[in-house]
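Researcher: I'd like a structural prediction for the single chain below. Treat it as a standalone chain; there are no partners to consider.
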Amino acid sequence: MSEIFELTARPNSELFFKKNDANDPRLGEVVSSEVSEYEAAGIVIVGCPQDEGVRRNGGRIGAAFAPDEIRRQFYKLTTFGIDAKIFDLGDTIISSALEETHDTHCAVVTQLLKDGKTVIRLGGGNDISYPDGKAMAEVFEAENWLGFNIDAHFDVRADQPRNSGTPYRQLLQEKLLKPENFAEMAYQSQAASPIYFEYLKDLGVMMKSLGEMRNAEREMRNWFEFFIDSHSVIKNIFWGFDVDSVRSADAPGVSAPSPIGLSAQEFVALAAYAGGRKETKLIEFSEVNPNFDIDNRTARLAAIAMHKFCVSLA
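Model: Treating it as a single chain, here is the predicted structure.
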């Protein structure tokens, strides 16, 4: 256990909001970052405050500031409905090379999963899905976990060096994630390459566009239900929530904004659904960019999604 504290930096105590009202408790007053509280926690928050992968991919810099801004909003929220004990581990220590940061982060998340924690990872660029997914494979083995990428983009770019557009291609090519256990959800055709669509189709990856999810007779979340039920023997699920899957009216502060996308309500409902699945082991929130946020709207959305995830946790 000691290694994860050596590989991470404790969160800033000033982020933990305190209302000091016994009739109106806030998460900043009950979530702990004290090492002695780790063992008893069911949920662990860990950040990875870097956007080098976004820079390499030509995106808007600023996601490195997201973990603290999401925390700032999360710890203002009330404790209503949250029964699980939450621990904030802090942030993975960032190295000068992205590849080294990924190795460190993977080691941290691997230990958290081995310790039986449900992990909430705050990004940071979406490249962090690679070390998060690698940790899932190391703990549960490649054939024993399902991965969801809820994103406007596929993130399977054939780029070198790795960047925020390559994480799922890395996981697939390194056989850390089986293609039949992977689903690309809410992609937007104007933001997605037809070449990569064919690549994923040939591999047998399940893909549902934003339009398909909304126009189906079944409810949006039932696409997830269908995929999970078809893999009923697999008991471990990874959820990648890229906040640029949300329309810019609701989430202006992201690395790659779009005027169309999921609504804030849909995004939060999907996070709550993820929390309600007993197989859930890890959920990510990526690509929040405080440099372009308006009135903290995007950081607040991620914080509310975290809250509903914790309320719903099976």
